[in-house]
Structure formats: C-alpha cells, structure tokens
C-alpha cells in the first residue's frame, strides 16, 4: 500500500455521487459489501475479489475504481462522512453528551462492529488511518454546536462579552477538549480496556465532563480575533 | 490461534523467572526480540522464526516454550506486568495524574511505540487482547492509591466517616472512573485521533478530572461493608 492517495480517493464530491445513477448504485453495492466483509472478518479478511463477489460486480470494476483494499477502506470511511448525521439536541449539554455517548457506545458494542473494524484497520493501513482521522475531526467539529448552544443557554462559564475580542480576562471554551473529555472514556472502556459495556457510562462520562466544564476546566483565554 | 491458553502462558510465577538462570536469560533475550520485532514491523511481521533469529536462539526452543506468536505476545505483556512499576507520588492528585499522563503520552508517541504495537495486536489476537486487558486492570488497580492518598489529604469530597459503613448519605470515590477520566483523553488523542502530541494535554486532562472529582462527579454511595 502506497502513500499516494489521489487516485484511490474517488469518493467525495465526485460526479459518481449523482443519486440513482448506475455508478452510484455500484458504489453503494460495493461499499455495502466492504462493510459486511469488514464486520465479518476484519480488514485482514478484506480482498478486492471477496468484495466484488459479495457485491455482485466484476472485480475489474472494483480494481479500476478503487484500485486496492486501501482505496476501498478510504471510500467506506468517506461514505460514513457523507451520511446526514446530526448531533443530538436534547435541550441540555448533559443530555446532548449523554445521547452522543449512547450512540458511540452502541456503535462499539454491536457485534460485529463496523466502527471497531475500522479502528483495527487504521492501525495497519496508513490510508485508512488518515481517512478515519478526517472523519473524526469532522464529527467533533459538527459537535461543537453542542457546546455553543450550552454557552448560549448560560450553562457554562464564559467571561467577557462575545464581541469583546481579547478583552482582559475574557475566556472562551475549548469545545473540542470538552467533547473529547466527555467521549474518550467510552472508547477507552469499550475498545481499549474491553470492559463489559456499562449502561451508566454514557451518562456518567457526560456528567463528569459537564461538571469539569462548569468548574472552568476547558476555559481558555479568548484568542485575538477569535 | 486457539483459545486454550494454559500452555502458552508460562510466564508469571514460573520457576523460569529465577534471576540469572539460563531459562531466565533465554526468556529475556526472546522477549527483547519480540519487543524489537513488534516495534519495527508490528504484530503482522511477528514470526517465531524471526524472533528466534533475532534472539540468537534455536527456533525449536521458542516453539517448545511459547508455541506460537500468540504465546509470545501473551508473555511479553505478562513481562510488562512483572515490571516493578510504581505510580507517581508528587504530593497532589493533579500532580500525580499529570505525571501519569506524561508517562502514558511518552509511551504512545515514541517511535516505534511498543505500546501502540501491543494495542494493534490486541485487535487481532484474542490471547493478546486478554493479556492486555489483565495488564491494564492491574495498572489501574495500582493507581487507585493516588485517589486514596488524595482523599486522605482532604483534596477530594467524601461524605461520611471512613468507618461509618453505609451510613446514610455517606459516599466514596469511584477511583477507577476518576483514573479513566484523567487518562482516556491522552489515549484518545494520540492513538485513535492520531493528533500531534500536545505537551499541555497530560496536565489539562489531569486538571479536568480533578475538577470533576472535586465537584462530585465520581462520588458514589458507599457500599455496605466496603
């Protein structure tokens, strides 16, 4: 697997995404097959031939468009990023983070887990790892609105007016650090520590992050021009 | 790789550990070779032949004692658990957790990283995963003393006297949840999100967990007889 990825990243924004077109249909079939093969046998069991057979397309179609297993992994991750996913909106930060954590835990404990298979693949494929890193970054960026809404509702401490850029003592919230503090324990327990899933963990991890935030743990000096 | 592990878990407490003995010397050479091969090529590149060649021992010696790659992985993880590791003792919980996080971050960002190679292996070897889960459980158990010392110093809120078992309203700290909240963001950022290592992260993650703990995030009702 090489590091040159241009020709193996055909997915995002490409004309093939036109809904209903034949290429879009083939892509959907092939990516469904990749997910199924990944979930069943992990990325070690992933082959272009196996994917083509399961998708019911000719393997030269797969080779031409995705080139190799790395290209398939990149595209299946890109497709996850194209999903119309919306962060939860429950009316409180604690509720939002709990809902987010429940969704994460569910995706990790379901067997077979496509999410865990992707993480495993990212340890072994530089292409898959980079695609996954982009997907995570997008998802955390999407979730920053949870923190913005909490600030707007007055749930979290922010010193200084919103328009008082760089005013002495003004702070803003490091939303990403808060989101990571809230979600990391779920990944850590389920994926790395392989603990039995604890149904209370999503809410507890969310509540701990909110308490830390309320105590100023993620407040940083407002940056000039932010 | 099978699930029966007795014959592939020869390490802990076995007479071979007698310091200075020939078998102990062979084990040290072989495990050093496993670590080097893992760090260089990951577990996918790990073979009994490669380990034997690097260790300078006959491959039948390796087959007889460790049987296969799974046995080697289990023993290298067991050896990590036998290390005389002590949790930090800086005089404050925040300082202790920061020191712990620095040690964790260092082990994850060093290239090649033996710790990351082991995590990758645990996605693919059930034996390695179970051995790693035991090692993590031991390490977190060892670290509970950080929380106990903080409680004894009065840094953290615990309602009810230590000997008032189960008294109404008495609480104790869920030390493990606190430790996971403090350390999980470091693993998450470095291993899963593959972010550039942030030298401030160890202290920030530690500080956030301490603030959450001080606000009661990890306080649970004291259990009868605890």
Automatic annotation (TrEMBL), chains A, B:
The keyword Transcription applies. InterPro entries: Homeodomain-like_sf (IPR009057), HTH-type_TetR-like_transc_reg (IPR050109), HTH_TetR (IPR001647), Tet_transcr_reg_TetR-rel_C_sf (IPR036271), TetR_C (IPR011075). Residues 1-23 are annotated as: Disordered. One of its GO terms (biological process) is regulation of DNA-templated transcription. PROSITE patterns: HTH_TETR_2. Keywords: DNA-binding, Transcription, Transcription regulation. The keyword Protease does not apply. Residues 24-84 form the HTH tetR-type domain. Pfam families: TetR_C_11, TetR_N. This is Probable tetR family transcriptional regulator. It comes from Streptomyces coelicolor (strain ATCC BAA-471 / A3(2) / M145).
């Amino acid at each position: 697997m090489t590091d040159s990825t241009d020709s193996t990243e055909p997915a995002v924004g490409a004309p093939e995404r036109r809904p209903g077109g034949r290429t879009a249909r083939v892509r959907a079939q092939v990516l469904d097959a990749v997910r199924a093969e990944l979930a069943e046998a992990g990325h070690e069991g992933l082959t272009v031939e196996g994917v083509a057979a399961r998708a019911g397309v000719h393997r030269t179609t797969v080779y031409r468009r995705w080139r190799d297993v790395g290209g398939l992994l990149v595209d299946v991750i890109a497709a996850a990023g194209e999903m119309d996913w919306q962060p939860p909106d429950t009316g409180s930060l604690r509720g939002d983070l709990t809902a987010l954590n429940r969704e994460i835990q569910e995706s990790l404990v379901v067997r077979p887990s496509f999410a865990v298979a992707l993480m495993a693949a990212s340890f072994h494929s530089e292409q898959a790892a980079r695609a996954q890193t982009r997907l995570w970054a997008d998802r955390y960026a999407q979730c920053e609105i949870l923190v913005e809404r909490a600030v707007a509702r007055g749930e979290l401490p922010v010193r200084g007016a919103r328009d008082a850029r760089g005013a002495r003592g003004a702070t803003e919230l490091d939303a990403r650090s808060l989101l990571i503090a809230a979600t990391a324990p779920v990944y850590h327990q389920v994926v790395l520590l392989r603990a039995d899933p604890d149904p209370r963990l999503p809410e507890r991890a969310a509540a701990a992050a909110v308490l830390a935030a309320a105590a100023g743990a993620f407040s940083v000096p407002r940056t000039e021009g932010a």
